[in-house]
Amino acid sequence: MRERSVARPTRDLPDVVRLAYLVFVLVALLNHAWFVDLSDPTPLDSLEGGSLATQILFGSMILVGLPMVWHLGLNRLRPVASPSIVLFGAWLLATTLLSTDPLLSLRRLALYVIAAFLSASLLIVARSARQLADAFAMAGFTVLAASYLGLLLVPALTIHSHYDLTGEIGHDGLWRGIFSHKNEAGMAMVLLVIFGLFIAAVRHRWLGWTMVAGAGIFLVGSGSKTPLITVLMVLGISWLCGVIQSRVVRAILLVGPVALLMTITIGSIVLPPVRSLLDTVLPDATFTARNEIWSFAIDNIVQKPITGFGFGAFWLTEHTVFGSVVNPDSSWVQMATQAHNSFLDAALAMGLPGFVLTLLVFIIVPTRDVLSRPSMNPADPSANLFLRLWQLVLLSASFETILFNPNTPAFGMIVMAICGLRLMKVRPVIS
């Protein structure tokens, strides 16, 4: 008797479902708190402490994203769970439980994990590079259109003014669009520039370059100089990695700029010769008074060098009040809610072991993954996308706490980039 063949069910999802999920997650990761009124202190507190709306939004997305990834194959993310990632996560959890405010740290950690998972899930849900490019286009143009329309229709909510309660001066007239700060808008715009280059490579040239132009103009209007310089450096690095065969030279290209920035930021506090050199060659060697925050952070790191203060707990305690300000135009540092340096905040949250693990997970392992390829193929848009996003956020991490803040547009992108670089060692992430 002939045995009847049974068709295996295909683990697939309709393209419309995939695309809707991709766009929704991307928009939320780029910015989930639109049109913040900086003259009202209530939303500012919510942004720093984590609002109920944010928790509901990310909670809803994980309830959708987790079943989708499970259906498509959760095992596809297995290569991401390298020993270094597992050790990093275990230490982060341990120091969270030992936090000076465990409940606060656990809430922060939950949001952090959810945002990281959603970012990684983009690589599983996207069927192809073209579909990911479509999602980038829809999400990116949504953000751009809302930001430009906001300048015209609600300038009080999209342009910095002297009514802002951020404690910063000199920002009047600078564009922030749907974002809460010009620097956040600037980072989002350079991310859209990289998205646009990817769209131009795999989808449609004019569509991609339109996004690049729109984001570039808004970046200029935001007055954010650091993102502009950083994205030019990143494009240069990715191009050089595509033409240089030497692993040693490529390693220097990838790690050298980050090491230099860490030297002139953290090194300027702990190494007097670096401080003297910077005073000589830079017009503002304080980096807009950030050096005071860095010095204050380092003084407190030595108080709890092993376990730190707990994830997200240090800056919301009595420790946030610190000394006088050298530059009277930079009184904003007295209201700092972060170290403005991701690596110092890693040490504050998780101690020196956490600092080392942060270097391992965010710098050393991705560098090894890039160097494991014979060379970066200039014609491989996916590889260039991941490399550019990773380097862009990493170079910015010495001046902002973005590696540990899921409320920033950069966090989700570096998680996606690191996962992408890791997965490309095993198989093509998106064909």
Spatial extent as radius of gyration = 22 Å
Mean pLDDT, all residues: 84
The low-pLDDT segments are 1-9, 44-49, 318-332
Note the main sheet: none
Question: Number of helix segments?
Answer: 17
Helix content estimate:
55-70%
Beta-strand percent range = under 5%
Count of individual beta strands:
0
What structural category characterises the helix and strand content?
Answer: mainly alpha
Shape: globular
Order of helices and strands: HHHHHHHHHHHHHHHHH
Q: Could you explain the architecture of this structure?
A:
It is built from 17 helices and no strands. Helix 5 packs across helix 17 (409-423) and helix 10 packs across helix 16 (381-396). With 431 residues, it is mainly alpha-helical. The protein has helices at residues 15-30, 41-49, 52-73, 83-97, 102-125, 129-153, 155-158, 182-202, 205-222, 225-243, 247-265, 267-270, 272-281, 290-301, 342-371, 381-396, 409-423. The two termini are 43 Å apart. The chain is 65% helix and 0% strand. The longest helix has 30 residues, at 342-371.
